[in-house]
Structure formats: C-alpha cells, structure tokens
Specification:
mainly alpha; elongated; 341 residues
Length: 341
C-alpha cells in the first residue's frame, strides 16, 4: 500500500475531527479520479483522531519548531536524570513545566483559529498536557508527536528514566564467612576487660614490643605461648554466629510462583493485544466502509443538485410554454370572432 502524501495527511489531521471523514472521502474520490486506486485505499485506511490528538497534531503540523524544542528538552532531561545531576535537573524541570504550559496555550489558540465556533472551555487540555509530559519522558512518544499522526492521547505513569539498582542474593556463604572472620579478627585483636574493670594489654607484636622486663609483657607472652590461650582463642572462634541457613526450598517455591505469574501475565497480554488488533481491524473496515458511504453520499448529493437544477429549468420552460400557448389561444379566438361590420 503506497504512503499517503504528507500534504494530504497534514490536511486531514489538521482539520477538526468532525470534518475528518468528509475530507477523507473527498481525498479518496480525488485519488480514484486520478486513476490511483491503491492510494485511494491508503487514504481510506487513515483513522480519525480524538479531539485531544487533533490538538497535538495541530501543534506538530502548525508549530513544528516548538515540538522540536520540546524533544530537545526531553533529551537533556533524560541525560540529567540518568547522570543524577541535581541542580541541572531542577532547572530543566522548571523549563519542562513552562514549555508544557506554553504548548497547551498554543494548542488552544490553534484550535480557535482552525474552528472559530469551537468552545475552548470544553477542550481536553488535560489530556494534551499528559501527552506532552509523556513525550518528554518517552522518545517513542516524542517521535509520534513530531509526526503529527496521533490518534489518541498518551499517558505516562511517572517521569524520566529511573536508575535500576543492581540486586544480588546474599546466601551467607564465603562472603559471610569472610565478614565473620574479619569481625572475629578485629575482636581478637582488641583489649579484653578484666574482672576489675581494667583491660588486658593487646596481644601480638604490640605486646612484645613493650619490653621483656614488664610484668604485663611477660603475662602477655605467657598467654600467647600457653595452651590455655590456644583454648581461649578456639572458644572465641567457635563463638562467632554462624550465617543463617539458606531456605532453598522457599526460594524454589517463590521462583516457581513468579514463573507461573509471568506466564499468566504474558498470556493475558497476548490475548489483550490480539483483541486490540481485531478491534483496530474492525474499526478500520468500518471507517473504510464509512468513507465509501461518504463518497456515495457526496455523489448522490451532486446528482440531487443537478436534478433540482434540471427541474427548475423545466419549470421555467413550462411557464414560458404556457404563456406562449395562452397568447396563441387568444390570437386564434380573436381571428375566429365574427366581424362586427
């Protein structure tokens, strides 16, 4: 199917929605008259936008420079949020609010110019604002907005790219033992309080370096070399809390439940997507049929106009013929009348 020329599509999508079908039917008829049935089918397949989508298409078609500025601002916002630039992000957020408000006001002005009889108080400007915000956060929505071919507004739950934390499962294995060993070594090197409140001197090289003549150093040396010290050290090592056991059965159950939920959600999404495609195809067929009916209606109206003109011409001819007949009848009666002399 050939692509619809840009000027034709712009003319359709810049027109108020209530005039879309009639304009599309006229474009279809022009394409058929030009001997291009494929283009006529492509034009007939174009779908009518909602009022909110029409306002957004007006912005893209009539003020493309403003939409381009919005797209550039969206790129800066995504970069600032991804790199966590706080001050710049605050400044860009203020610019975002100002840009969206200006575009909404511009959409209202363009709608008033395109349809002077339109009630601007009933325009769905909230949906326009939501779509502009979505375009700032989603590059795909921004591309659709720039194309000026939106069929309905878009909503975005949130704003910007959210950094995803890198998660890992801590099982309490080697890493836990390493942390426990480090903590144990730190505690082993720390002074221990005596029953009287004073602390023993630290063991190891620091104790030996205090001098062999002191009683504290001798006591420390004896503590290091004696079997009681080894037993004490063993008790401290065995006193470290063991890492919590991993409930692998619970993890497997959770994984199985998550897999089942994922499969159900995927199946639901597939059904919903298939239903959406079927509904879209049905709507496209209805709109194509409606376009054909609009074309036939326009042709019937043209035929009716020609018939009215022909009838009025026949009525004028009949009036003139009656007048002529009356004159001729009067002349005959005058000729047949007896001569009074």
């Amino acid at each position: 199917m050939p692509e619809v020329p840009r000027e034709t599509a712009d003319r359709l999508y810049a027109a108020p929605p209530e005039r879309f079908v009639a304009l599309r039917a006229a474009a279809v008829q022009d394409a058929r008259a030009a001997g291009d049935p494929a283009l006529a089918r492509a034009i007939a397949a174009l779908r009518k936008p909602t009022v909110a989508a029409w306002l957004l298409n007006l912005l893209a078609i009539r003020r493309p420079e403003l939409v381009a500025e919005l797209a550039d601002l969206a790129t800066q916002l995504r970069t600032a949020q991804r790199e966590l630039r706080g001050p710049q992000l605050r400044e860009l957020s203020a610019r975002r609010r100002a840009a969206v408000a200006a575009l909404v006001a511009q959409a209202r002005e363009l709608a008033a110019a395109a349809d002077p009889g339109l009630d601007s108080g009933r325009l769905p400007l909230v949906e326009v604002e939501q779509t502009l915000t979505a375009a700032l956060a989603d590059a795909e929505v921004a591309d659709l907005l720039r194309a000026g071919r939106l069929l309905r507004p878009v909503r975005y739950a949130g704003f910007g790219e959210v950094p995803r934390p890198q998660l890992r499962l801590v099982t309490g294995g080697a890493a836990g033992r390493e942390r426990g060993g480090a903590a144990g070594s730190q505690r082993a090197g720390a002074p221990r309080p005596r029953p009287g409140g004073a602390a023993d001197p630290p063991t190891g090289g620091a104790a030996r370096s205090t001098g062999g003549g002191s009683r504290g150093a001798a006591a420390a040396s004896r503590t290091e070399s004696g079997p009681d010290s080894r037993r004490s050290g063993g008790r401290r090592a065995t006193a470290e809390p063991a890492p919590p056991p991993v409930d692998r059965a619970a993890i497997r159950r959770e994984l199985s439940a998550a897999r089942t939920a994922r499969s159900r959600a995927q199946a639901q999404l597939d059904r919903a997507a298939a239903a959406e495609r079927q509904a879209a195809d049905a709507l496209a067929e209805i709109e194509a049929s409606l376009a054909e009916l609009e074309r036939r209606r326009a042709a019937a109206e043209a035929d009716l106009d020609r018939c009215r003109l022909a009838r009025k011409g026949a009525e004028r001819d009949l009036t003139a013929a009656r007048r002529r007949y009356g004159l001729a009848e009067a002349a005959r009666e005058a000729a047949d009348a007896p001569d009074p002399g």
